[in-house]
Specification:
The protein is an alpha/beta fold and 331 residues long. It has ten helices and 14 strands.
Length: 331
């Protein structure tokens, strides 16, 4: 169990994720996870890093996200209350062993409230067919809880009933009902093609991913199509993944911000221990302090760029063939 000094309660007491409090807490979490998460400890040792020399978060090694596909990334003495799995082919899925679901719930609820307010202010409609068709989705877990907290009788999941969804969206947009439509990219495109309409007073949020149903598009292309079809000025985005217990949000232009207990940094894809400055494209590193019982320091497979002190953009993804000279993937 974490010591009282790094108890989960401290995670959500942080004010700004640029603060000294965040850095100090992150360093404490690093030392705790090095001591108590075997997978992370062996990874750090393989890099021959002197743990005692880590004095700032820029020196912390980030665990490649691929380890969640082959290893049980969980701190010693913990057992999983739930195991979240990523979409993908058999043998190519990540598994996140979550020891305390209350931490996940606190993280996504406080994160949502920070950016959008109380979920009970909204009718929340989810268009997530590819996620509903499988088990173990952390996104479905989150959205289901938000729908419950919404309390609106029309809040819920919509699978293939696009016509019914379209009619409800149209009515709510006209009568001023505060509404959030959250969907996977290919399903939102289906809705846009079959039922284009004025949804200028509706928050439309994409969660990314064509899931093999359509040709992959750049986020800017996707948003252009959706904005035109739904006559809205901005498309919102949610940035999360199976291996994390926190989400970043974009309220337009593809620019994301994190909650106070989460931070993104950009690494050089050819020298993954080197961090890049603002406006330089590289791999996305994520500190998610809500991952207290697994690993809070994750090197994702997404490409991104910092656009401001606390703002980042997701450019796309890369595979191993793009990482020349990177040996972190095979440690």
């Amino acid at each position: 169990m974490p010591s009282p000094e790094i108890s989960p309660e401290r995670i959500f007491q942080l004010g700004s994720n640029q603060s000294a409090d965040f850095e100090q807490f992150a360093l404490e979490v690093f030392q705790f996870q090095y001591a108590h998460c075997q997978v992370y400890r062996e990874f750090v040792n393989a890099l021959r890093i002197d743990v005692a020399s880590i004095k700032n978060i820029g020196q912390i090694p980030f665990l490649p996200i691929e380890f969640f596909k082959t290893q049980q990334v969980i701190t010693e003495g913990q057992t999983a209350q739930v195991t979240f799995t990523s979409s993908g082919t058999t043998g190519d899925t990540s598994q996140h062993y979550v020891a305390d679901t209350s931490i996940y719930e606190t993280s996504f609820l406080k994160g949502f409230e920070l950016f959008y307010g109380n979920p009970n202010e909204y009718c929340i409609m989810a268009l997530l067919p590819s996620y509903l068709e499988r088990k173990g989705s952390s996104l479905i877990y989150m959205v289901n809880k938000l729908i419950q907290l919404s309390g609106h009788q029309e809040s819920g999941f919509y699978l293939d009933n696009l016509k019914e969804l379209s009619e409800k969206l149209s009515a709510f947009n006209k009568n001023g009902q505060k509404s959030l439509l959250l969907g996977v990219s290919f399903a939102l495109l289906d809705l846009a093609e079959q039922f284009p309409q004025d949804l200028s007073h509706t928050i439309i949020m994409e969660t990314g991913g064509m899931k093999g149903r359509r040709k992959e598009l750049l986020r800017i292309e996707l948003h252009h199509i959706l904005k035109k079809a739904f006559q809205t000025k901005a498309i919102h985005s949610e940035y999360g993944m199976t291996e994390l217990l926190s989400q970043a949000y974009s309220r337009g232009a593809g620019l994301f911000n994190c909650p106070p207990w989460m931070k993104v940094m950009i690494r050089d894809i050819n020298d993954p221990l080197k961090l890049l400055p603002k406006d330089k494209t590289g791999g996305i590193n994520i500190i998610d302090l809500a991952n207290i019982h697994s690993c809070s320091f994750i090197a994702a497979k997404d490409l991104g760029v910092m656009r401001g002190k606390n703002t980042f953009e997701v450019i796309g993804r890369y595979d191993n063939s793009d990482v020349r000279g990177c040996n972190l993937m095979v440690v």
